[in-house]
Amino acid sequence: MDENLIVESLSPIERLTLPAVKKDFEGVDEVSFKTSQDKTTVLRAITFLKNKGLVETKELERRVVDLGVLGINYLKKELPERTLLNCVFHKRELPISEIKNACGLNDNESKISLGTLKKKGFVIIEDGKLKIAKKFDDISVKFPEELFLEKLPLDFSTLSKEELALVEELKSRREIIQIETDKITSVKLTELGLKISKLNPKNDLIEQLTPEILRKSSWKGKTFRRYDLSFPVPKIYGGKRHFVNQAKDYAKSIWLEMGFKEMTGNLVETSFWVFDSLFTAQDHPVREMQDTFYLKNLTGKLPVKVDKKEKDIILEIKKAHEGKVEGSLGWKYDWNENDARKILLRTHTTSLSARKLLEISKTNEFPAKYFAIGKCFRNETIDWSHGFEFNQTEGIVVDENANFRQLLGYLVDFYKKMGYEKIRIRPAYFAYTEPSLEIDIFHPVHKKWVELGGAGMFRPEVTIPIFGRHIPVLAWGQGFDRIITEFFKINDLREVYKNDITKLREMRYWRK
Amino acid sequence: MTILTFSKKEFEVKVGKFTKEIEEKITMMGTPIDSIDGDEISVEVFPNRPDLLSFQNFTRAVLMFIGKKSIQKFNLNKPEKNLIVNVEKAVKGVRPYTVCAVAKDLKLDDSKIKELIDLQEKLHGSIGRKRKKLAIGIYPLDKIKFPIRFTSKRFDEISFVPLESKKEMNAKSILKNHPAGIEYGHLLEGHQVYPVFIDADGKILSMPPIINSDETGRINEKTKEVFIECSGFNLHYLNKALNIIVSTLIEMNAKVYQVNVKDSSGNFISPDMSSQEVKFKLEDVNKTLGLSLTEKQIKTYLAKMGIDFMSSKSGYTALVPALRTDILHWIDLTEEIAIAYGYENFVPEVPKISTIAQEDISEKRKNTISTILSSLGLIETSSFHLTNKKDIKKMHFDFKEFLEIENSKTERDTLRMDILSNLLQILSENSNSSYPQKIFEIGVTFSKDKSNKTETGVNEKCSLAIALTDEVISFTDAVQVLEYLFKMLDEEFKIEQVENSNYIAGRVGRILVSGKEIGFIGEIAPRVLRNWKLKMPVASIEIDLEFLLGSRNNL
Lengths: 512, 555
What we know:
- By secondary structure, chain A is α+β, with helices and mostly antiparallel strands.
- Chain A is 36% helix and 21% strand.
- Chain A has three domains: 3-54 and 190-216, no CATH class; 69-160, Winged helix-like DNA-binding domain superfamily/Winged helix DNA-binding domain (Arc Repressor Mutant, subunit A, Orthogonal Bundle), CATH 1.10.10.10; 244-506, Bira Bifunctional Protein, Domain 2 (BirA Bifunctional Protein, domain 2).
- Chain A contains 21 helices and 17 strands.
- In chain A, the strands form four sheets. A seven-stranded mixed sheet of chain A has the order 8-12-13-17-16-15-14, with helices on both faces. In chain A, strands 1-7-2-6 form a four-stranded antiparallel sheet. A three-stranded antiparallel sheet of chain A has the order 3-5-4.
- Chain A is elongated and about 135 Å long.
- The two termini of chain A are 38 Å apart.
- Chain B has four domains: 2-65, 2-Layer Sandwich (Phenylalanyl-tRNA Synthetase, Chain B, domain 1); 84-270, 3-Layer(bba) Sandwich (Phenylalanyl-tRNA Synthetase, Chain B, domain 3), CATH 3.50.40.10; 276-345, Phenylalanyl-tRNA Synthetase, Chain B, domain 1, CATH 3.30.56; 361-549, Bira Bifunctional Protein, Domain 2 (BirA Bifunctional Protein, domain 2, 2-Layer Sandwich).
- In chain B, a hairpin with an 8-residue loop joins strand 8 (159-160) and strand 9 (169-170).
- The longest helix of chain B has 17 residues, at 235-251.
- The mean pLDDT of chain B is 95.
- Chains A and B meet through helix 13, strand 8, strand 9, strand 10 and strand 12 of A and helix 8, helix 10, helix 11, strand 20 and strand 23 of B.
């Protein structure tokens, strides 16, 4: 980078700090002292300068002599030997037994102070009384200990012989000083830093454009300080739609682009619409309680004829189950209306399609294409690939000319737009479709083919009771949550409805 | 899900090397590979194909599918003179039908015995609907004496040593104490008499659908000849189950003999393995699949699926083997042809038909609300419709109108009646995330329909809930959000002071639109916060969106 541009990009603290950095390593404390900035600010400035390649840093370990807990206290007041000395000086003489009370010292302090003063030759003991030694004349002269404590903290390696002796002496007294190992950052100029530093960074760069600068046009002829664009900034998060709903909106747009109309409807349904209208035998295992959420103590109503001309849909469905639809064996049993009245949480969105077919049959307006994306419920124990609540995307195409290849066409197109170029389409079984298929994708983490959802063409036993004749209907109900988890890097379906706010904040937006 | 497990070695002996290609073929035949674990291979068998639940039938199907075997004819031997089963009137009220067969020249070993027992159990579980619809018994022929009676007796007249027991037990004790009795006894509940098979010497062979006699109901590797019966309520399914077993035995090179069943409702010879004839039109198949297959191709594809084909002036007829349960209609043949053609070989096509797209208006409006609230920095959550009573009561302590689920496998067994409770739960689980936390959710809530207008007895409403929490949060914060939302929607609302113990007194209002109450706004009461273990104050809104979206009930 151009050296002038570097100069222009220096922030005020960098401009202040850079000239204080030397060619050789020096501690940050020194830089802080020289620039009259606090240490944190200097460290920030050094980080910025380092990012620009102007300084180099290294971490050094050093032993530091510093004040201990008592040392801090004594420095604030005075050392106990100073207390004792003043006390004796004022009273002229002091009986040894009264030292404690007269000077306000504890046992330990009085013992040590007495010893120290005697050793220094400041006091003498006569007849059990403490007196000032004659050779001592000025008590205001500071002790070397006092001078030393005032200088702390000090780098151990810089201590003089006398100071080392003081350290030894003070160490033997409790908690006056302590020796710590400390990490210090040292900093020096790089070659580039040296050049820049010689350019004598200007101080008149505009840091912040203000209304005042604008008003006065004082920016003219001046330079704005250049920013370091790579510097990390504090994170912010926005409000957003739940990620499943983001993907749902996108999937909706796929169906809408293909000319589909949206179906919606109740989550709580009668068995009639979830099972019976879809030719699911009344003794089929899916209808058992261990697979389906039935509601307690409720009995539903079955559709009623509004006018006499209308067909009796209940009778037609009964006929289909009992093998009375032309060309069909049916299930060879007596269909029971009461089973159809049971209330349940829909196990698939295909109940919406069944209702829609009946509606379409009243006008016979087709080709007709409908889709839905909505919640379904299964009484399952949950694991990474199973939830008891999940979304399905449903679709039907009602058209005299609909065929199996078109069914594949719609699905392959949909999956391609959802980001799946490669899917496996294989035979499958559903009571209400024939031919039927299942779509699998290979799960990259679990290394397993994962079923996404079923599809097929509605059986004549489904269409004839509703339309009076067999009209081809392409139909699918694809497990939606499983389709989108890969994009959101979710490997466990249990994560989908966990509502972890931190994760929701950080979760990427749906995009294809 | 029903799984067929077999040994890779045995498969390779019968079919050939188990390559990646054959693995894929098996899936594309309609029996997806479930797992491969060393020598053990498991495939999923769909409920419409109980005929594939035996290794013998499965490998035959694979051989035909890959073109290594032609259609199997199942040869049966005419009944020997004494092979008679009398179905007496006495059994009609409790278990009306049985179909039977005799198999000779068996060469059983451990693995074949296991296969037969497995097949029997899998048929009980699937097509037999846990023995409710049908039950199967297999007996060594040398232990029993024809003719056999299928009749019923009062439970105190039935006494024999059941399998897995050493002592003689009477019927009552079997139902009460024997494991099979405990599991299946409910199937005989309410009956004064129980069905039994009795041989010419008066020995009780079994009491279906519960248990066989230990003396006559156990086969081993020395067994060369067996009697098989299948009893239940529907001759169609009984025949299918028996045929699946018989075809398995034929594949094991046994000779199968028919039996004369003298039934008070009509005599017949069993098993009946004549093919099921299904008429179809070539054009219907082609139209359904979007292909233009020729008669010859159809014949080849059906043969791969084990189905024979006849062409006559009146059209085409498929001859479906008697062990198949899934061909109810000609439409089922189209899938057979599609599978043989290969799902992977279809060329997908999106037809050029024009229809007009339409998004549901209330879904659109919900999206708009979501967009407005997101723009205020609120995060949308998505939680379950199922909850439990304990969680509902954390806020609505005197609520009683629960909508409960029968036998939920999880702790969640009640439909939610509000969304605010979900949001409070979310806040309580997220105390580690940074504050403020502002969340909302739009979703369905449920209540009992007392007006009896709905089809289901359940009212479904679309609601919006908003919860705001921070060290300092107040009524004002909630009102600001509500005001902005309504301003953007160009709707008017009023807040009216109200008493509601879920909120702090004097800091809760009901929200009115056109004079109608649609919800509440306020600061959540400390009692509720404590119940949810919340450590920060919460201001909230919950409103019913019906005024904007219309009713969502099927009336």
